[in-house]
């Protein structure tokens, strides 16, 4: 039996600088990361150290200056932008600090939108099931503009999981929530990723949330290090 862990996402020596006038400011100088199927990784680091930039490279929303990225063993590089968006939409889900929901749609509409964007048939039953598992069974048809921050973030988690992604990237998903609703979102996020078999890359400032991941990393000096 092959017991080698299955690597779903692999980054090697990713580097990224931003130009400010004539000077180039290095943000990431060589980030390597392997994400194992079904496992969670947390990344902590000071504000401005490059956490969001790293997630943008892992999702290929931005191109690195150098280094390589593989999704499911396939190099992500030369694909056309439209194909890349569809590939990304099936492989990966994303949760942001500020939710990025469509306020005039209801919760189900926001979740099924993820399927449409990825060129998949929107399965309403799947969307409703995910929302119920996120504790939103009573909130399926309210406009998301009427939901609380914690409820909106739970809709965003359901949306990120809609297409059965292999990997979910979450960028400070509890950053705008109080400790209690942040805790509820985190419990549900970890539980539902485990149930769905999705790997989780979690960027957070919260030490106790970070500690719950299978692997704990710190981003500092442009590279990842094991965190205590
Ligand atoms: N598009 C951009 N253009 C110029 N500088 C950027 C851009 N995106 C991020 N930066 C800079 O890169 C650094 C890292 O930013 P970011 O990845 O957002 O950090 P974090 O998420 O850890 O707070 C910051 O100094 C930020 O100002
Ligand atoms: Mg950030």
Topology:
Blueprint: E1 7-20, E2 23-36, E3 40-44, H1 51-58, E4 66-71, E5 74-75, H2 81-91, E6 92-95, H3 107-117, H4 124-133, H5 149-161, E7 167-171, H6 179-196, E8 199-203, H7 207-210, E9 215-220, E10 223-226
Parallel strand pairs: 3-8, 3-9, 6-7, 7-8
Antiparallel strand pairs: 1-2, 1-4, 4-5, 9-10
Helix pairs in contact: 3-4, 3-5, 5-6
The protein binds adenosine-5'-diphosphate and magnesium ion.
In short:
The chain is 33% helix and 29% strand. With 228 residues, it is an alpha/beta fold.
Instruction: Describe the oligomeric state of these chains in a short phrase.
Output: single chain
The CATH C-level name is: Alpha Beta
Structural class: alpha/beta
Q: Main sheet?
A: 6 strands, mixed
According to CATH, the homologous superfamily is P-loop containing nucleotide triphosphate hydrolases
Number of DSSP helical runs: 7
Which range best describes the helical content: under 10%, 10-25%, 25-40%, 40-55%, 55-70% or over 70%?
25-40%
Bound molecules: adenosine-5'-diphosphate, magnesium ion
Which strand-content bin applies to the residues?
25-35%
Q: What is the strand tally?
A: 10
Radius of gyration, whole Å: 17 Å
CATH fold assignment = Rossmann fold
CATH architecture, by name, is: 3-Layer(aba) Sandwich
How much is the average pLDDT?
Answer: 94
Give the number of domains.
1
Which ranges are low-confidence, i.e. pLDDT below 50, for 5 or more consecutive residues?
none
Amino- and carboxy-terminal Cα gap: 33 Å
Task: Give the SSE order as H and E letters.
Answer: EEEHEEHEHHHEHEHEE
| Net shape | globular
Main β-sheet, spatial strand arrangement: 6-7-8-3-9-10
């Amino acid at each position: 039996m092959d017991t080698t862990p299955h690597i779903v996402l692999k980054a090697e020596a990713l580097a990224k600088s931003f130009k400010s006038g004539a000077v180039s400011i290095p943000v990431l100088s060589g980030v390597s990361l392997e994400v194992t199927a079904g496992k969670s990784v947390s990344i902590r680091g000071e504000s401005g150290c490059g956490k969001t930039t790293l997630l943008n490279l892992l999702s290929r929303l931005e191109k690195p200056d150098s280094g390589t990225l593989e999704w499911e063993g396939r190099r992500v590089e030369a694909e056309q932008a439209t194909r890349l968006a569809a590939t990304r939409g099936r492989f990966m889900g994303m949760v942001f600090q500020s939710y990025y929901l469509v306020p005039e749609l209801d919760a189900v509409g926001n979740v099924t939108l993820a399927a449409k964007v990825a060129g998949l048939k929107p399965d309403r039953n799947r969307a409703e099931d995910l929302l119920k598992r996120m504790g939103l069974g009573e909130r399926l048809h309210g406009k998301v503009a009427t939901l609380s921050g914690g409820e909106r973030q739970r809709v965003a988690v359901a949306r990120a999981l809609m297409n059965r992604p292999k990997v979910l990237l979450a960028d400070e998903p509890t950053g705008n929530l109080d400790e209690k609703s942040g805790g509820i979102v985190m419990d549900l996020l970890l539980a539902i990723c485990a149930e769905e078999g999705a790997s989780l890359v979690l960027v957070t400032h919260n030490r106790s949330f970070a500690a719950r991941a299978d692997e704990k990393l710190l981003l500092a000096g442009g590279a990842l290090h094991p965190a205590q």
